[in-house]
UniProtKB/TrEMBL annotation:
Gene Ontology MF annotations: nicotinate-nucleotide diphosphorylase (carboxylating) activity
This protein's pathway: Cofactor biosynthesis; NAD(+) biosynthesis; nicotinate D-ribonucleotide from quinolinate: step 1/1
Protein name: Probable nicotinate-nucleotide pyrophosphorylase [carboxylating]
Residue ranges of every copy of the Quinolinate phosphoribosyl transferase N-terminal domain listed in the record: 26-109
Positions of substrate binding: R99, T132, R133, K134, R156, K166, E196, D218, S244, G245, N246, V265, G266, A267
InterPro entries registered for this protein in UniProt: Aldolase_TIM, NadC, NadC/ModD, Nicotinate_pribotase-like_C, Quinolinate_PRibosylTase_N_sf, Quinolinate_PRibosylTrfase_C, Quinolinate_PRibosylTrfase_N
Amino acid sequence: MFHPPHPETYREQLGAFLREDWGTQDWTTAAVPDRPMTARVVAKGDLVLAGLPVAREVFRLTEPALAVSLKCEDGQRVVKGTEVLRIEGSSHGILLAERVMLNLLQRLSGTATLTRRFVDAIEGTGARILDTRKTTPGLKLLEKYAVRCGGGVNHRLTLGDGVLLKENHLAAAGGVRAAVEAARRAAPNLVKIEVEAETLGQLKACLELPEVDGVLLDNMSLEQMREAVALRDRSGRRLFLEASGNLSLDRARAVAETGVDFLSVGALTHSAPAVDLSLRMD
């Protein structure tokens, strides 16, 4: 069982999403009778679920009297035809919540499903799949939760969760050493420092700095990544290596087999296709 963010952390966004969808008046729903009905949300394909508690919260915000039953759990693989959610009560309440609920559930489950494909692709290598900060504003916590449902690992949730010195930071500071030393002076002792390296020379510079906890290998070839792992291992340093840069599903296993510790995949949150789920009322 995966524990999603507390509803208080995203309830305000859900309210805004509902108001945006409703506009001034739902003339369609108002035109049909409001009566007790049962609705079922069903998977239209094989997928990994994420966002069921969020879907329930959408219904609760729309019509608190609705009875919502979760038939599956987040992180669960389901096959086409599986009932994942059941709602009983006001037909108007169900109809008003339907589209926002489905949009969120399909999007979050899409992220979980794509993450699981990456995780399965590198199984047995010892590497792990990371997300990035390339998230949808307002949905970051939920999208990163969906990554966990798919078996991935979260990178920084906020800028305050760690130091990641990328090429622009290095340029502004005047090089790797200057940037790392400045970061160590500025950040609390328990905050880790990671440095982006575009060349093996930059990696070597990082290996000479005890303040560096990890190195992001940016857009390196497989040969360069293997050499980076060998350099790290020969140095005796225990810093982690993260591969990044246009990591496709087809290439993921080859990258993981170079010996890197993490593969960071921006597509998990910025390009995952929504899965197909539908709501049908009896």
